């Protein structure tokens, strides 16, 4: 265990009081409770509403230091980290909130900037209507345009480009990607979707601790590049400012804490919420599927153990609907851990292990206990960027292998843009799965508008044949993370 964090008792008391009020509101059915000042949940800076309940951020200080340079514009376009990493949206952005921001400002909020906010850096943004078109990808999917040149010495060339916005070329591919949450970062094993800010591949340490320095150095590099890129600064603000930002990020822990139907996610033996999350045991390689746990322990598919106690019809809860909601979350957790998935055709997994079919589950890939990313860096291609899933709003790139003459089409080459390797096309990391409800849409390109869309993707991609009950249980569980 490397992260000790004792919840300050006054904070605990304060939160307990708030949760008592919230669960009262959550338990009262629909309309009658709405708008009544007695039953409405009390507002607290650390707890924010989201579509399925309330999200909590925990910090060691018990508050968010909005004086941190994370919240300051450090460049030339008025943006700060907080333009794209917002507490209420799980420290990223949601497409819904971005649409609200557009409506509030007629598309002049600093997030709407040509550098990477628009579909092309030369789009017309002279009128509100033009801006609605130019920023359509941000508004519809919550994605930014990451521009990257074809890598030098790649094993492949860009043989065709179909860019609906007429901009992308080998000089700069347009890659539309979701901001990743600037929270729970202490457990990141690869920084950025393609891992490009990972300082060194994080390795299992010799002892049971973790070398914090790797995450810290990676995040410092990431922050500097964000300031120079997204914020268009002309120079670094200096190492001291960067260190303050990284400190801030490393002390954020975020998770869903109250579900509208199931109530407090950390009551009656459940272990949801950010306070408990902040104490999660972790080291690089913990519970690794591919036998890299430095303790030598074998992989245990029971990765999520937050709601073990809730699949009990006699469980204490004042309302039937609440009891049913809790049982659904518990069943969803079981499905996540144990529902058989025959994993096939995943580059980085099936080819690396030499197994054409891996009899796994959601937890095979999302193996870090109660966190949900992979406990070692594991760039893999599950098919999100495949040509078969291309929608007309995404550019499509044809890549041709110099050696074999073989061609492949993709909307985002992922890791291959860094390594130039044919085998790395379409590889991305699996993100941390906490605080999901607050931050739709999902996947690197925002192609899943809802958590049900995520579940449907897996059902189709791996021919799971889930029942509608199984799907809704999984969604109930994912929404409670
Ligand atoms: C204009 C929007 C925007 C701004 C401003 C911005 N980011 Fe990001 N951030 C993104 C996007 C998009 C990604 C994912 C890009 C990718 O993976 O290719 C990202 C990724 C990250 C990640 C990676 C998290 C992970 O798990 O890998 C961190 C950390 C981060 N940003 C921190 C910051 C900090 C710190 C700042 C301010 C200095 C900042 N960002 C400013 C959009 C933004
Ligand atoms: C073969 C490995 C693998 C399996 C199995 C798998 N995932 Fe994933 N998961 C990933 C990867 C990789 C990503 C990121 C893909 C991307 O965006 O390109 C991901 C992304 C996600 C996301 C989106 C997170 C975000 O922030 O956008 C959710 C939610 C998710 N997975 C849930 C599940 C569930 C539920 C299951 C089981 C039904 C499952 N995963 C099975 C590898 C896997």
Write a concise synopsis of the structure shown.
This protein is α+β, with helices and mostly antiparallel strands and 481 residues long.
Question: What do you see in this structure?
Answer:
The chain is an alpha+beta fold and 481 residues long. The protein has one domain. 28% of the residues lie in helices and 11% in strands. It has 14 helices and eleven strands. The chain has helices at 9-27, 30-33, 95-105, 128-134, 136-141, 212-228, 239-250, 274-277, 320-338, 350-353, 362-365, 416-419, 451-461, 468-479; strands at 47-50, 53-58, 144-148, 156-162, 173-177, 253-259, 263-264, 341-343, 358-360, 396-401, 407-410. It has a four-stranded antiparallel sheet. A hairpin with a 2-residue loop joins strand 1 and strand 2. Helix 13 crosses helix 14 (468-479). One heme C (HEC) is lined by residues 336, 341, 343, 346, 349, 360, 362, 364-366, 380, 382, 384, 428, 430-431, 433, 436, 442-444, 454-455, 458, 474, 478.
Q: Tell me the distance between the termini.
A: 22 Å
Overall shape: globular
Class from helix and strand fractions: alpha+beta
Mean pLDDT: 89
Give a count of the beta strands, DSSP E runs of length 2 or more. Answer: 11
Largest sheet: 4 strands, antiparallel
The strands making up the biggest β-sheet line up spatially as 1-2-6-7
Question: Percentage of helical residues?
Answer: 25-40%
| Annotation field: number of helices | 14
Please provide the ordered H/E string of secondary-structure elements. HHEEHHHEEEHHEEHHEHEHEEHHH
What would you report as the Rg, rounded to the nearest angstrom?
22 Å
Cofactors and ligands present? heme C
Low-confidence stretches: 1-43, 206-210
Count of distinct structural domains? 1
Strand content: 5-15%
